[in-house]
From TrEMBL:
Part of the tripartite ATP-independent periplasmic (TRAP) transport system. Belongs to the TRAP transporter small permease family. Pfam families: DctQ (PF04290). GO terms for biological process: C4-dicarboxylate transport. This is TRAP transporter small permease protein. Residues 26-156 form the Tripartite ATP-independent periplasmic transporters DctQ component domain. The keyword Membrane applies. It comes from the Bacteria.
Length: 175
């Protein structure tokens, strides 16, 4: 039972963890390298490229997290004025559009990851840090985003069937 709870917690917080790790790493690298540049007149060659690649993980996991919290771009004012059935229809349309967009993004980003992997592309300024490790952020985060869309759709379906209010208004500024 404890393992199940731990896995559930990890799955519900994976985006937060990766956002914090990537943001903390970016901040740490930039902070240390600014100090080194101005105080010691030296800088690591990779210090300007790794934070940019870490931003891929930050941005795409942030998109997945916002989908989980339903704080992505929505037309809330219009939806609140619709009938209950039309609100549910809009939520289904949202999910369909997310899946179409996700399929396109995953298809093309996996190809980009494969090209970087196949060409042994390394991050500029490093000897052995592969670019595809960072490019993998896009298909991984979008796959997780589609899982979150599915979770939201299942929740919406259960709410609709039970006659409970639908999650039309996004949760903002917190959990």
């Amino acid at each position: 039972m404890k393992v199940g709870k731990a896995l559930y917690w990890a799955f519900q917080n994976i985006e937060r963890f990766l956002i914090i790790v990537s943001y903390g790493s970016m901040t740490g690298i930039i902070f240390v390298e600014v100090i080194r540049r101005f105080l010691f007149n030296e800088q690591s060659a990779w210090s300007t490229t790794i934070p940019i690649y870490l931003f891929l993980w930050l941005a795409w996991m942030g998109a997945s997290y916002n989908t989980l919290k339903r704080s992505h771009l929505r037309f809330t004012e219009m939806r609140e004025r619709l009938s209950y059935g039309a609100q549910f229809g809009c939520l289904i349309l949202d999910a369909v559009l997310w899946f179409v967009m996700g399929a396109v993004v995953i298809f093309f980003s996996v190809e980009q990851v494969y090209i970087a992997y196949d060409n042994f592309s390394i991050v500029q300024g490093t000897d052995n840090v592969m670019q595809w490790w960072f490019y993998l952020a896009t298909p991984c985060a979008w796959a997780l985003l589609l899982v979150r869309v599915t979770q939201n759709l299942v929740s919406d379906y259960h709410d609709f069937k039970a006659g409970r209010p639908l999650a039309v208004q996004a949760a903002t500024f917190g959990d």
